[in-house]
Design a protein that fits this description.
Largest sheet: none
Number of helices: 6
Low-confidence stretches: none
Number of strands: 0
Structural class: mainly alpha
Mean pLDDT: 90
Helix content: 55-70%
Amino acid sequence: MHWLLGISITIVTFCTMEGITWLTHRYIMHGFLWYLHKDHHQPHNSKLERNDWFAFIFAVPCIILFYYGGVQGHTWLTYIAMGILLYGIAYFLVHDVIIHQRIKWLRNSKNSYIRAMRWGHKMHHKYLDAAPGESFGFLWVEKKYRDKIKADDSKYGKKG
């Protein structure tokens, strides 16, 4: 397989993961697996949550794809696995590091994208139960949250 096609498959997979994440978050994590995700919406003092099991759950398809791509010689599956892995790394960095500050980094960012992402996530977490909920996406920030940050910046004369 040509390396350019492989990179394209990786990028398309990475982008597709946003839709898969939205659907999984909305209908699985806030659905029949709410019992694992619930503690992520509740106040607590623990460093770990039952919700952290999702990292392992979501790693399983990636591991299987790497196996069939590498060991079984289906190279295109390796590129799909790479897209999923890169999305998982991005998820960890954005969700756990930037948004929830499990590792203190970019704490006071003035970047409008990061601020809009944090605001959307804050609106998601205002719901302590599985339903109704809002803002189930991850990297794609809904227009209403981007507009809110723009309005704040205009109101207070900030640039982000």
